[in-house]
């Protein structure tokens, strides 16, 4: 019987067992602010691919930018499969989350190593969470048929003061939705950092052996992202899914190399900063 682990091994470094997946799928969500740093997507993808991360996360419409790049050593493709309108402010009256038709077959045709889907928990919007659960269950069936790894992105959100939603880093809220994602059949988890990085081992533990990748979230200073990354990796995380902290950086290739050194060479935050400055 086909085994999804064959593809999943393409995501993770064979020596460190860790993964850097750079998210460049922001245009899928229809928010102009999300396009900062990736207005010229072909150039952005080429720059990132040349920096040699483990994976790059793209949509069906733009996966060709990676898959036509270079030879057999190019980064693995993680394919975004769902579209939602839950970002931005003011919030729309009607919210949705929908997966693309034949999502996993599309991923196979594009030679993806994994597919990714949201599991959203939004204040006062249980219908969106229900839609996400149905999406995950649908994808799980497709992934079993085609031996495709399923990455689930369980996100607990809270209302922001300026409108819209922002990340909720409460470990007591993150743990249950991560566990639900695991129970629904996730092969990989992409989870937000906890407010206190020292609590992240609880997220890793509740994943029951499923690798947990840390979601990057909004843009922060170089010092903060390196310190946070070091602290969370020490709690047992298996890697990173960072987007804006790389693609909106003045030196995305240098940031990629610095984070890869943290993941695969054991570089600390201070060493990562040195690598960034010298790149």
Description of the molecule:
The protein has helices at residues 5-8, 41-50, 64-67, 103-109, 126-146, 171-183, 200-206, 222-233, 244-247, 252-264, 269-278; strands at residues 19-23, 55-58, 76-80, 82-84, 97-99, 114-121, 150-159, 165-167, 188-191, 212-215, 239-242. With 279 residues, the chain is of the alpha/beta class. It has one domain (5-217, 238-243): Aldolase class I (TIM Barrel, Alpha-Beta Barrel), CATH 3.20.20. Strand 6 (114-121), helix 5 and strand 7 form a beta-alpha-beta unit. The radius of gyration is 17 Å and the shape is globular.
CA gyration radius, whole angstroms: 17 Å
In total, the number of domains comes to: 1
Structural class comes to alpha/beta
CATH architecture: Alpha-Beta Barrel
Give the neighbour order of strands across the main sheet. Answer: 1-2-3-6-7-9-10-11
In N-to-C order, the SSE pattern is: HEHEHEEEHEHEEHEHEHEHHH
Chain-averaged pLDDT: 95
Uncertain spans? none
In terms of DSSP E residues, the strand content is: 15-25%
Profile the largest sheet.
8 strands, parallel, barrel
Distance between the termini: 45 Å
| Strand elements, count | 11
Net shape: globular
Task: Give the proportion of residues in helices.
Answer: 25-40%
Using the coordinates shown, work out and report the CATH topology: TIM Barrel
CATH superfamily placement: Aldolase class I
CATH class: Alpha Beta
Entry summary:
This protein has 279 residues and is of the alpha/beta class. It has helices at 5-8, 41-50, 64-67, 103-109, 126-146, 171-183, 200-206, 222-233, 244-247, 252-264, 269-278; strands at residues 19-23, 55-58, 76-80, 82-84, 97-99, 114-121, 150-159, 165-167, 188-191, 212-215, 239-242. The model has no long low-confidence stretch (mean pLDDT 95).
